[in-house]
Amino acid sequence: MTVTDALSTASKPELLDKEGDRTLRGLLYDYFAFGRSLEAARETFAGFVGLSPTQYLILIAIKNSTAEEPMGVNRVAERLYLSGAFVTNEINKLVSDGLLEKSPHPEDGRRVQLTLTQHGVSLLIRLAALQRPVNDALFGMLTREEFKLLSQLLSRLASNADSALKLAEHVRATLKFQEDQQASAANLPESRKKRRTTLRNTR
Fold this sequence. Notes:
Strand content: under 5%
Radius of gyration: 26 Å
Low-confidence stretches: none
Structural class: mainly alpha
Number of strands: 2
């Protein structure tokens, strides 16, 4: 393996070019920069109406629910890629603030569905006046086809992200264990190293 190969941050041919992982790194730099802009926009939107960024996302997700697919706590958590316990706590705050209301699920009485109150609708109408020009500026340079493709690609990437993070933890633990084993072997007293060598030679 060459030094270039050893330094590469990906191995799948689809992610590499003649210059190694340069294109991948450039994509990630651009993605991180755009992600920071999205985070800043989200905080601006949320702060404009006195919400936390997560509460803002929850309200928007529930606004986009339909009668055919009503939003419950689990569905909101899945859509936002957040834990159910965290979402439940934030939803309870929004209910207490009069922005959301709970009602029995039409098909399962053990579950609840979430809908905006009139107060919640009024708040989002006020917010939309800020969102429209900002979202137009963020995405307006894309054609309709490019926008649809971006939406599809990000959906696929987001759905695979949890698996990638679990893999990261597993590989990290494995590499750390191997490094600890190597360090331990390197620090063995010389007499123990010789004894191990002698034992191996007599087997």
